[in-house]
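Technical annex B. To support the medicinal chemistry partners, we prepared a structural model of the target in complex with magnesium ion, based solely on the information shown next.
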Amino acid sequence: MVLISLGIEGTAHSFGAGIVSDDGQVKSNVWDMLTPSEGGIHPREASRHHSELGPLIIQKSIANAGIVPNDIDIVSFSRGPGLGPCLRTTATMARTLALRLNVPLIGVNHCVAHIEIGCLDSGFRDPVTVYVSGGNTQTIAFSGGRFRTFGETLDIAIGNMLDSFGRDVGMRFPAGPKIEMASLDASTFYELPYSVKGMDLSYSGLLTAARRLYSEGVAVSDICYSIQETAFGMLAEVAERALAHTKKDEILLTGGVAKNNRLTNILEGVAERHDAKFHRVSPTLAGDQGAMIAWTGILQYNAGDQIPIPDSHVLPKWRTDEQEIIWRA
Ligand code: AMP
Ligand code: MG
C-alpha cells in the first residue's frame, strides 16, 4: 500500500497543491502565482488570491493525480517561514481538509521542503544547497541533525533584487527571466558593488548602483548582464566556501532563480573545480509548489512527526535550522 500525501504551499505569492506518494512519485503539482501589474506583493492581496483560488487548485490537483479525496492519507502544509496572512489562509485550508478527511496534519518548513524535493529530484543524499528565490537567498547544508544556514543575504533576496530592478525599467513581475534574456544582448560589463561578508552576502548596494546606471542612461542589457555576473559571482564564492568547509561533494541549486541558465553554468563550474556533482532542480519543482510540501510531509510523517490541530499555528519566522530533522538522523 502506498501512502498518499496532499501538500499545500502558500507562503508568499504562489499557491500550490501537489500529490506525492511515498515511493517518490509526483502524481500532480498545480499552482498559480499572483502577478501584480505594478508594485510588489501585498500580503493581504496574496492571501486573498490564495483563499479565492486555493480550493480550485486543490481540487484540480486531486483530479490530475487520478485519485479521490478519500485516497489522501496525510495533509501537509507550509507552516513557515512566510507572510503571516498567506500562511494563515493556507493553514486554515489544510486543517479543514485534515479534519474533514480525518487524516494526520503535517507542518512543513518551506525551505527544508525545497531541499528535500531537490534531493528526490537529483538522487543526492547530502548536498550543499543554494536556495535562491523571490524571498530567500541561502546556502544550506545538513550538519549535526539540522539543516544549517551557512550563509544568507543580509538584506534583500536575489529574486527580490532582480524583480525590483526589473520593475524600475518597466519589466513586469517576475523580472528574473526578462533580465536573463536582456543580458544576452549586452556588450559592456559595468562594475557593481560585490559584497560578500564571510559566508553572507548583500544585494541592496548592487541594486542602488544598478538603478544609478539606469538613470545615467546606460543600456538596460548591459546593466542586466552586469547585475547577473556580479550577483551570481557572489553566490558562487559562497557556495565554493561552503563546499570546502563542509567537505560535501554535491551542489544542489533550487528556488525560482534556479531557472537561470547563467547561474547554473557558473555553479556547474564551481562543482567541477571541486570534483563535486551538480544538479539544478527541474523547472516544475524549482519554484514554490505543493509537491515539495507533500514529499517532505511524507518524510516527517514516517519519522513520527505530525501536529495536533490545536498546536498547528503558523510560524512566519521559522528558521531553517530551528527544526530537528529527525528523518535524516
Ligand atoms: P520563487 O520565489 O521560488 O517562486 O521564485 C520566483 C523568483 O524567481 C522571482 O524573483 C523571479 O524573478 C525569479 N526567476 C524566475 N525565473 C528566473 C530566471 N530565469 N532568472 C532569474 N530569476 C528568475
Ligand atoms: Mg520558495
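Notes passed to the chemistry partners:
The longest strand covers residues 14-21.
Residues 14, 133-135, 159, 162-163, 174-177, 180, 255-257, 259-260, 287-288 surround adenosine monophosphate (ligand 1) (CB under 6 Å).
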